[in-house]
Amino acid sequence: MNAKARTARQTLRDRSRTQRAAARIARRGAGTLAAHCVAAGLGIREARTVAGSLRNNAAKANAVGIPGVSYTHGRARTCIRYTPAEVARIAVIYRPRKQAFIAAAARLALAA
Predict the structure, then answer these.
(1) Angle between helices 44-58 and 99-110 (to 10 degrees)
(2) What is the pLDDT of residues 50-90, one digit of tens each?
(3) Which of 16, 18, 25, 69 could share a disulfide with 31, CB 3.0–4.6 Å?
(4) Cβ atoms 58, 90 nearer than 8 A
């Protein structure tokens, strides 16, 4: 596999991950903070980082969310799902330093 094909596959993989997350949120009406971050265009690792920071700001924004269970890799974990409007309220409070996170926070704030 040459470099051009590798780059094309990576671009396609990232774009499909983003579209899948956005479609799931649109279909269900709510999603975890990490799912909202992936839908905003972040990778999985960056999405977890931003979601942790957003989780800390959720109480300040009075965002309660919907408790649920997330099933992944054969285990069930409790999670809290947020609507896009709640995520937008949280994202307004969030003040990141990294440039990629600033762009993602702007997209999250506009998602509602």
Answers:
(1) 60
(2) 999 999 999 999 999 999 998 888 899 999 999 999 999 99
(3) 25
(4) yes
What separation in angstroms does the CA of 50 have from each of 4, 6, 46, 77?
30, 27, 6, 19
Instruction: Give this prediction's pTM.
Output: 0.90
72, containing H or E segment = strand 66-72
Task: Give dist(CA 96, CA 106) in Å, integer.
Answer: 10
Helix or strand (DSSP H, E) at 73: none
Paired tokens of 11? 């671009």
Instruction: Let me know: does 44 contact 20? Beta carbons within 8 Å.
Output: no
User: CA triplet 96, 98, 101: central angle to 5 degrees?
Assistant: 65
Coil/strand/helix, residue 34: helix
User: At which residue do the structure tokens 């980082």 appear?
Assistant: 49
Reading the block at residue 27, the tokens are 């279909």
Residue bearing tokens 């396609």: 12
